[in-house]
Inverse folding.
């Protein structure tokens, strides 16, 4: 099951953070078809967000065909995204790179900007 982390200072709407974190879990293979998402009540208890915010996020995921709500049972994953499992050798390489970047004195925003520029270069026109 996914555990949502809400960053109230990020400037990103709370429901979008839930959507983004769910999609990330789908891409990494942490969520698979048939898995149940936490109930709105569970998310509210863990994050102190409004239940309507959680439901809005789940409706957006449902609209995109990623999950389906089953009355009285919960919300379940319909399909996955991407092909980058959490235990991928590429993840290990990226972790090592991030450690080197931090050791070199780069801040999180510096690393994000650098990484985004590389992504933009290599995946131009391939963005969501």
């Amino acid at each position: 099951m996914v555990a949502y982390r809400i960053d109230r200072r990020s400037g990103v709407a709370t429901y979008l953070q839930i959507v983004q974190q769910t999609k990330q879990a789908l891409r990494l293979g942490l969520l698979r078809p048939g898995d149940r998402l936490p109930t709105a009540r569970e998310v509210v208890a863990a994050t102190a967000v409004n239940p309507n915010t959680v439901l809005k996020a789940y409706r957006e995921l449902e609209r995109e065909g990623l999950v389906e709500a089953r009355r009285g049972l919960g919300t379940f994953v319909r399909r996955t995204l991407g092909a980058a499992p959490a235990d991928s050798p590429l993840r290990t390489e990226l972790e090592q790179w991030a450690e080197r970047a931090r050791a070199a004195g780069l801040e999180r925003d510096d690393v994000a900007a650098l990484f985004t520029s590389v992504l933009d270069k290599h995946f131009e026109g391939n963005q969501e």
